[in-house]
Each structure stands twice: as structure tokens, then as C-alpha cells.
Design brief:
single chain, Nucleoside Triphosphate Pyrophosphohydrolase, 4-stranded mixed sheet, 2 helices, 7 strands, about 15% helix
């Protein structure tokens, strides 16, 4: 199985909302998830999380801490090795970009109205994020 290093970023705002992006590419195109993607050669997971946040949302973030490390099989013999980080917005303007079709702030109550990536809520719970809402 080929392992693909990746990073994600979980961003909460003062209104107790989480920033989600609608995936513009496979896997799980059209579903909502936290910003993230593959590491570039020589890039650390935390730097990748900062870069992916900006590329997919237009927001500059500061990493607070790593909150989750998991492996996600893709079903085609690959596996993403994902490091997820909690981050705070420090600048920029929200706008979908790169491989995101849309980006928006979502309250915990509104998560059920969106088609989320597989197991996203479980992962957020495992990371302790739902306790911060």
C-alpha cells in the first residue's frame, strides 16, 4: 500500500463555527470537509496545513497544536497519512480557491444539513473539537 503524507486544518471562529470546504476533486468530490491536502516534497505537516488553508480558503492561519493523526485508505491501494491541526485565523478574506468549490463557516447544528466527507464528525469528536463548540 502506498502511503501519501497529508495535513488538514481545523479552524474555529469566535461564533463557534467550523470552517469547511466543499471538495472540488476526488476523493469524495462535492462533500464538505476541513481544508487539507498532500504535503509537498520536503514540507512539514504543520506548514502544509497553513499552505492548504490559504490555498483553499484565502485565510492565513496560525497553528495552535496537532489534534489528530490518522490513516485513511482510499480504496485503490493508497492510504493518506493525515496530521490534523487546530488553527486560528490571523488574516485574509474567506474565498474558495484551489481545489475547493466552496468554503463557509458552519455551526455544529448545521453540520447535518451538509453532505460531509465520510466519518468527518467522528474524526472531529476524536480530536476533541466538538467539545470546543
Amino acid at each position: 500500500m502506498q502511503t501519501i503524507p497529508a495535513a488538514g486544518v481545523i479552524i474555529l471562529n469566535e461564533q463557534r463555527q467550523i470552517l469547511l470546504v466543499q471538495r472540488g476533486h476526488e476523493p469524495q468530490r462535492g462533500r464538505w470537509t476541513v481544508p487539507g491536502g498532500r504535503l509537498e516534497p520536503g514540507e512539514s505537516p504543520d506548514r502544509a496545513a497553513v499552505r492548504e488553508a490559504f490555498e483553499e480558503t484565502g485565510l492565513h492561519v496560525r497553528i495552535e497544536r496537532e489534534v489528530l493523526h490518522l490513516r485513511l485508505p482510499t480504496g485503490d491501494g493508497h492510504e493518506f497519512d493525515v496530521h490534523d491541526f487546530l488553527a486560528t485565523v490571523v488574516g485574509g478574506e474567506l474565498a474558495a480557491g484551489d481545489d475547493a468549490d466552496d468554503a463557509r463557516w458552519v455551526s455544529q447544528d448545521d453540520l447535518g444539513a451538509l453532505e460531509l466527507t465520510e466519518n468527518l464528525v467522528d474524526y472531529l469528536e476524536e480530536a476533541g473539537i466538538t467539545d470546543l463548540w
